[in-house]
Amino acid sequence: MPWCVSRWHAPLQACSRPSMWCFGERNLRRMVETWHMDVSPNEAFDKIVEAAKKLSQEQHELFEDAEVSKENKDELFLQIFSYTPKCQYLDVVELHLHPGQESGTRVEAISFSSGFWPAWFPCGPIWNMLCCWIPFTDGDLNKKRLEALREAITVPVTSTDNLSKC
User: Which of 10, 52, 149, 151 has a Cα at 20 to 30 A from 44?
Assistant: First the structure.
């Protein structure tokens, strides 16, 4: 379960995204994928929410301390906060759903580490903004997190591109 201070800092840290500010370094700590699902956007949204909550409830190693932060079905947007178990580093998963060109749903999925300092750290969002230039890697956790979410969805999902280096 996320610590109280981590929960307080998470929305500001996820919104400001200090780890994404430096172009060359942000590629070390993010994963971007485009998915295609052969169901309507609303049904795809429901299936993704169901999969995310299932992974969190089952205490999946990559979603052990995860919570759905924003769930907006009108805008077809989903945001998940995932905290690392020991240090409470905040990783953010965001999913934007769009109607497919011909049919189905296109999902833009991004997972990124939010900053160098853990979410519980006193004034953590400010420290992360000041230290945005410090290079650090996510150890492929963001790639693995998107893979786990994609595999947990109960309808077929195809990934058309994986861009960690863009």
Answer: 10
User: Model confidence over 62-114: pLDDT tens digits?
Assistant: 887 888 889 999 999 999 998 887 888 889 999 999 998 888 999 999 999 88
| CATH at 46 | 3.30.310.80
CB-CB contact of 94 with 109 (8 Å): yes
* Amino acid letter, residue 156: P
CA distance 68 to 79: 6
Question: What's CA 21's distance to the chain center, in Å?
Answer: 17
* CA atoms within a 13 Å half-sphere pointing along the CA-CB vector of 158: 7
Query: How many Å apart are CA 9 and CA 90, to the nearest integer?
Result: 9
Give the residue from 7, 29, 11 showing the smallest Cα distance to 20.
Answer: 29
Domain that holds residue 152: 4-163
Beta-carbon contacts of 59 under 8 Å, excluding residues fewer than 6 positions away, are none
What is the total count of domains within the chain?
A: 1
